[in-house]
Amino acid sequence: MTVAVARAGVVLVGLLVWEGVGRTSSPLLGVPPSAVLPALVDLLCLRSYPDLPAHVLVTLREIAVAYGLAVVAGLACGGALGMHRLLGSVYGPMLGALYAVPAVVWYPSLMLFFGLDAASKIAFGFLLGFFPLALAVLAGIRQVSPQLVTVARAYGAGPLTVFGRVMVPAMLFTLVAGLRTALALAVIGVIVGEILGSKRGIGALINHAYGLLRTADYVALVLVTLVLVVGSDVGASLAERRARTWSES
Known about the structure:
Helices cover 83% and strands 0% of the residues. The chain is built from eleven helices and no strands. The chain has helices spanning 2-24, 33-44, 52-83, 85-100, 107-114, 118-143, 146-154, 159-170, 172-196, 202-211, 215-248. Helix 3 packs parallel to helix 6, helix 5 packs across helix 6 and helix 7 (146-154) packs antiparallel against helix 8.
């Protein structure tokens, strides 16, 4: 109860400060919550943007594809580098160096290669989600006791069996954290890609409202995007909690 009250107080203070600053600012540059609320109602009632559900579905589909590809590629790459020490020693630092490069510098190349359609947004979301997951799997495998692997191989377990039956349970916390981070970054990558250049998706609507200086609609769309991002993170948090319960039982 104390935590909830404290959070509500922070939100209330933030809204009051926002209202005061918004009322003294130019309506083209800043809007108070009292002006955002009607715009949000119009948005959710499909009056300002009647095609909002179609754009949201486009974004969700791109996120699902980008995240799915990142999971498959991240598990495969991280698993291969972790299971083979020579490959991990050679290519692990290179993977970390590529992850350190600001991801936005890759987007112009992705647009040139994939165009302005959904493929470039999926590729950007995949790129952001792949690296943290692959590095998390690599780090998790390196933390597994070599004795466990030796015993499993002594009983005739192959590489896939060792990875699924030994590695995954032992590195579960690291793996789940990597999956959660990859999901958050894939969502951000797709939406940012839509904002930077797209004709469809929630990011394209944000860019449209911003370009026309429809500030109230712009803020309302950002709030919808915030719900989408927070909702995905809450879902990942629930999955992480279940994984922790399963590992402790």
